[in-house]
Specification:
Number of helices: 22
Subunit structure: Homodimer.
Structural class: alpha/beta
Domain Transferrin receptor-like dimerisation: 622-739
Strand order of the largest sheet: 1-11-13-12-14-19-15-18
Transmembrane segments: 7-27
Cofactor: Zn(2+)
Protein name: Aminopeptidase NAALADL1
Largest sheet: 8 strands, mixed
Strand content: 15-25%
Shape: globular
Distance between the termini: 36 Å
Number of strands: 19
């Protein structure tokens, strides 16, 4: 028996030795005596001349014409207009001269909410005898033929339940928990209708926060102070004379707090997928809510009685914003009248499509760089989202041409996603990540999101960890629109900067800590390094919380071409910038991601946490020392990996060493995932970037747990603070271990 085993071992060793020798001589010597061609391909780095060629070929007029085509008709998710944009994307990506390697549609059956076009939602003021004294506009005022398109959807709150609410009106500011708490100290809110303004709390939260106080229904509007710098007249101040929102403009939106299809949490919404009962859906309002324009809000708020609301609650109307009695002033024409909401929304499961495209990688086709933008809009959607779609189409036209002409193929595969039903809760991208969870988790290098590409003239960048190498290279290479001899980088530093301990004054980069666009599922659910790129406006010169035509019938090609980006040069700059990022992520031998900068973020978060929490936690015998040690360990490990990269001649190293380092960089964000950290937050698993209600620039789970414990004083809530400290410490320590030499 022993003899047989020895013979087997020796035979295996002989075969292995022969294989090594054959492999050695096969690699080092081809028939011509030269090394095989794939060796050169494996060691190839990003081609700077190719990037220069790409930058030179991005055409602002092409982007302009893309946008003109995309905004011809309204294209709300699953409508005929949406299908028209699906076909347009497929045609472009399947073009034999400028298209991608492959393009297809990916379909999901998703739960959406719509108004009834035959029975429009109504908001009225009614007297005790039910006489209608005032009716809010059901349709925005027309200034161009765009607003007269029969497919323009009536302003509504998606996922608001159908129902009828009637009661005395009260003013509840932004509908935050603290707003209702303060209001309830003055007024018995039971049986009332609240009017709130956008901002401060999420759309759905304005109604969800109201319900426990007995509020029957909620109105929401955009105050001119928050969007128009106080301007209100469409005679000469607002659109069509400027970018400001006209009085009848209404922001539509999805009024839910979760992202992804609501009936299939954590499952892709395919036709045969299990669906939870609709009554088990969480994160949506249980009382009716309806958006209105500020012209109607003015009529209602300026007639309210009772005492004046706090100064922080006052807006742009030329009247005092009162709490309401509840109800209207005794001297008002509306005295003793109620506000009535008649909401006829309905829900249905409909087929929604993502359009997908791919350029296959030549060396590492199993490593993906994903670029995405949603396609659906509330109305014409020139800025949101078609500015991003028009940029993506131009970017893929230039790259597709290079591929079809045989002039270039990326090292890693590029995947392009035109997501469907984003406006209803990031549905298309979320379903994609759920369907391909395993593959994307294992293979995705990074996700680049360009949603609202342009709504100003300054670069705005948000990301998980800061790939400084890539940021500064792309920003320095691209000319700033309309500024001679100024790069995007120089303009970026001028507009938004910070001081780095290591690098001095550098551009300020925001963080992807919420679920504002399609990066959410990639960051929070999959732990994929992500960035969101746009051109924004100078927020020191306006109070506008977003571009004023956002989600209204005025977000049209006319609006974009006259007031946002005449000449489309900012769109061109974003296309060049985003394309530069994409090429570098796909073609660089070593991924241009910087771990030491991630360490700087963790140190900033730690410093804030120490200042805010350490004293009280020490008094409760809860130590922050494990968190301090974890952050220090991460800094040391990040510096080690950066040093290895900096001092190695990786072009002449074994490809396996390069692959190992790239995997360490690629998988770093995955190390911060904890599926049990946030049981009350759907699909949030990233302990650094999860959303937070506490509003503190520090670790989100810790901040929220501390706020709850401080408010309640209960020992079980302080235990939760300790729990989140442990979650953080172990996640950061674990992430540090992924950066050191493999054992």
């Amino acid at each position: 028996m022993i003899t047989q085993v020895l013979i087997g071992i020796l035979s295996g060793a002989a075969i292995l030795t022969a294989g090594i020798l054959i492999g050695h001589y096969g690699i080092s010597q081809s028939s011509s005596g030269a090394p095989p061609s794939w060796l050169k391909d494996v060691a190839k780095d990003v081609d700077e001349s190719l990037i220069e060629k790409f930058l030179s070929e991005v055409d602002n007029i092409q982007i302009q014409e893309n946008l003109r085509e995309l905004t011809k008709v309204p294209h709300m998710a699953t409508t005929a207009g949406d299908e028209q944009t699906v076909q347009f994307m497929l045609k472009r990506w399947q073009d034999p001269e400028t298209g991608l390697d492959q393009a297809w549609r990916e379909e999901y059956m998703v739960y959406l909410s719509f108004p009834d076009p035959k029975n429009p939602n109504k908001v009225t003021v009614v007297s005790p005898s039910d006489t209608v004294l005032h009716t809010a506009r059901e349709k925005e005022k027309s200034y161009t033929p765009d607003q007269d398109d029969p497919e323009v959807v009536q302003p509504y709150a998606a996922y608001s339940p159908a129902g009828h609410a009637k009661g005395k009106l009260v003013y509840a500011n932004q509908g935050k928990p603290s707003d209702y708490q303060l209001l309830n100290q003055t007024i018995d809110l039971r049986g009332t209708v609240a009017i709130t303004r956008y901002g401060g709390a999420g759309r759905a939260a304005k109604a969800i926060n109201a319900a426990p106080y007995g509020v029957l229904g909620v109105l929401v509007y955009t105050d001119p102070l928050d969007i128009n710098d106080g301007l209100m007249s469409d005679i000469d101040e607002t659109y069509p004379h400027s970018w400001y929102l006209p009085p009848s403009g209404v922001e539509r939106g999805s009024f839910n707090t979760h992202y992804g299809d609501l009936l299939t949490p954590y499952l892709a919404a395919k036709e045969e997928t299990y669906r939870i009962p609709a009554e088990n859906i969480t994160g949506i309002p249980h009382i009716p809510i309806q958006p209105i324009g500020f012209e109607d809000a003015y009529t209602l708020i300026c007639e309210l009685g009772e005492e004046a609301a706090p100064a922080a609650w006052q807006g742009a109307f030329n009247c005092t914003y009162n709490f309401g009695g509840p109800g209207f002033k005794s001297t008002s024409y509306f005295n003793n009248s109620d506000v009535k909401l008649d909401i006829f929304n309905h829900e249905e499961v409909k087929n929604s499509s993502n359009v997908m495209g791919v350029i296959r990688g030549s060396v590492e086709p199993d490593r993906y760089v994903i670029y995405g933008n949603h396609r659906d809009s509330w109305v014409h959607g020139a800025i949101d989202p078609s500015s991003g779609t028009s940029v993506m189409l131009e970017l893929t036209r230039v790259l597709g041409s290079l591929v079809q002409q045989g002039k270039w193929r990326p090292r890693r595969s590029m995947i392009f996603g035109s997501w469907g039903a984003e406006e209803f809760g990031l549905i298309g991208s979320a379903e994609y990540t759920e369907q391909y969870f395993a593959k994307l988790s294992e293979r995705t290098v990074a996700y680049v999101n360009v949603d609202i590409a342009v709504f100003g003239k300054w670069l705005h960048l948000r990301m998980t960890k800061n790939p400084l190498l890539i940021c500064y290279l792309f920003a320095a290479q691209v000319d700033a629109p309309g500024l001679d001899s100024t790069s995007v980088y120089d303009n970026w530093v001028r507009y938004a900067n910070r001081t780095s301990p290591a690098l001095g004054i550098i551009p300020r980069v925001g963080y992807l800590s919420g679920a504002g666009s399609d990066y959410a599922a990639f960051v929070h659910y999959l732990g994929i390094t992500s960035m969101d790129i746009s051109y924004t406006y100078d927020r020191t010169k306006t109070n506008a919380r977003i571009y004023p035509a956002y989600h209204t019938a005025y977000d049209t090609f006319d609006y974009a071409s006259r007031f946002i980006d005449p000449g489309f040069v900012s769109h061109q700059a974003i296309a060049r910038t985003a394309g530069n990022v994409l090429i570098r992520l796909a073609d660089s031998l070593v991924l241009p991601l910087n771990c030491s900068d991630y360490a700087e973020i963790l140190e900033d978060y730690l410093g804030t946490a120490m200042t805010l929490y350490e004293h009280q936690l020490r008094a409760r015998n809860i130590s922050m020392e494990p968190l301090k040690r974890a952050v220090a360990s991460f800094r040391s490990a990040a510096a080690h990996l950066d040093r290895v990269i900096r001092t190695s001649d990786l072009a002449n190293e074994t490809p396996l060493k390069v692959r190992r380092i790239n995997d360490q960089l690629m998988l770093l964000d995955r190390a911060f995932l904890d599926p049990l950290a946030f049981p009350d937050k759907h699909a949030y698993r990233h302990v650094i970037w999860a959303s937070s209600d506490a509003g503190k620039p520090t670790f989100p789970g810790l901040a929220d747990a501390f706020a709850t414990a401080e408010s309640s004083g209960q020992s079980r809530h302080w235990d939760k603070v300790h729990y989140h400290l442990s979650v953080l410490s172990q996640a950061i320590e674990g992430a540090a271990h992924t950066l050191v030499d493999v054992i």
